[in-house]
Amino acid sequence: MRFIFSISLILGLFAATSVNTAAAADIHSFDVIGIKLGMTPDETKQALTEHNPEFDVQEYYYTYSYSDGTTTYNTDDVLGRMAVRHIRPSGPTPGNETIIIEFSGKAGSEVVTALSRVRSGDLNPPSIKDFAALLVEKYGPFNQRNAHFLEWHGDTGSRTCFDLGGLSETSAPLMERAVHTITDFSVCRDTMRYGLATTGSVDSLEKTTPTLGFDVSMVSAKLLIEKYDELNEWVNNLEVDATKKRESTVVKPKL
Asked: Which of 72, 91, 186, 227 has the highest count of CB atoms within 10 angstroms of its CB?
């Protein structure tokens, strides 16, 4: 199913600058159920289908407005999100799963820039300790941890700028929100985080109680910034071309 929203773009270009050369994780090589940052829409849908053919993938599009000085136009549709809300009421893998994938870029060149996945209700899941070990086996050593999450950091930037906690089908694009609060995008880093839940509080990743649910977020600050620049340039060029076209056919009034 396809949904379309119209929004106004906050113009302004941002350049990513490498500020940290310390060894870190290659977030772009990571995958969550086969989905990697930088994937195209077609590659993403294929990965979702291969993971679970029963997934009903919803697509959400934006249009951006621009003006020739007298008339307002809308761009072609730009893919902003894919979403899956999957309920498994019975069978060998009951439970719930929500996947929200953010795309960025101009129409026709959108790629995955962020992903959020929440899953719960699996039968006989591994313990917190074993789940954490599985994550390290797949993704390698983590860069940060506390009692309930593991986090991997990319090789540029010094902070996690983009909060995926409020990511939904209809929330504003991440960069549209970030430009109001972040003045220096060179400090932003690529990040992946897994949060784990069990009975009671997760006071240690050594707990042997079952992992009753988990959430994962993965975001590429580098791609978000690059694709936001690309989108700005595209909309700006459309406005320049539309203005030139109008000015070439100006009708002079009789005075």
From this structure: 227
Cβ–Cβ < 8 Å for 121, 80: no
Longest dimension (CA), the chain: 87
Rounded Cα distance, 92 and 13, in Å: 49
pTM of the predicted structure, to 2 decimals = 0.85
Token pair 């309920």 is at which residue? Answer: 87
10 pLDDT band (50/70/90 cuts)?
A: very low
Q: Are 177 and 168 in contact (CB under 8 A)?
A: no
Strands (E), the chain: 2-7, 58-67, 72-74, 78-88, 95-104, 111-120, 144-145, 149-153, 191-197, 213-219
**Distance between CA 19 and CA 155 in Å, rounded?**
9
87 Rama sector, left if φ>0, alpha if ψ -120 to 50, beta otherwise: beta
State the DSSP string of 50-77. Answer: HH-TT---EEEEEEEEEESSS-EEEPSP
Quote the CA–CA distance of 115 and 32 in Å, as a whole number. 8
- The pair of structure tokens assigned to 128 is 């917190």
Taking CB atoms within 8 Å and a gap of at least 24, the contacts of 17-24 are 17/156, 17/186, 18/155, 18/156, 18/186, 19/156, 19/157, 19/158, 19/186, 19/187, 20/155, 20/156, 20/157, 20/158, 20/189, 21/155, 22/155, 23/155, 24/143, 24/152, 24/153, 24/154, 24/155, 24/189
Alpha-carbon span 22 to 6, nearest angstrom: 41
